[in-house]
Design a protein that fits this description.
Elements (H helix, E strand, L loop, with lengths): L1 H7 L5 E6 L7 E6 L9 H10 L5 E6 L7 H9 L5 H4 L2 E6 L9 H18 L5
Parallel strand pairs: 3-4
Antiparallel strand pairs: 1-2
Amino acid sequence: MARSFLASAGLSIGFAADRKSSDAPDTKIAVRLHHAGPTNVMIDLAVAMKQNPNLKVQLNGGYYDLATPYFAAVYELHQLPIQASLQENIDMHFYTSGHMVYAHEPDLKALHANVATFIERTKNAGH
């Protein structure tokens, strides 16, 4: 959603970070999130996960979400061109709501608990 807004405003998102890893010693990560046609950031996510094997990803969504359908998200994440071991860095949670998970109070509470647990579990991970 934010990416669509930024694109419509003629803006883009990008990041660059210096880091070292056994796969790419002394390399500079530079990912530009400029896409022609329909936006698909899965390749960008795969690159980021390969460059930083400690990167953790959490997906939260509603089963009845027509904007970002449940199965499409699961399928895309399972099809990422990453090592099998990196799939373990992806955490998925789905709720009985639609796109606005927070509009259904029981799901809002579950979302809050899942995000809080994710943050607690991943803060300073790999450092």
